[in-house]
Task: structure prediction
Amino acid sequence: MAYCTAPNVIPRSRKSNRNAETNAAKLLNEVEFSDDGQIAYANGFVHPIRTSVKLPDDLKKQFLPGDAYKAVKFPKDFVALDAAAKVISDGWAQLVQ
Result:
């Protein structure tokens, strides 16, 4: 199959799929943010982003209690965070080589 490499040229087959891809992305969002989608993520130990989701009791027991998250502090200095990530990454690379 030959591909057109000219700039700003979209093959006809790609044009017809653009709406399908957009609609598929919308559907994926609907599934991920639905109650069932949030519970599916929680089964993978990811906290639901929606606070209105009611997790089953057995699943809720696998997470820390809400009070445990009061001490969580999110970084505000993203330059320092980036520098720390580089130090960690470089240090890890040295350890595993």
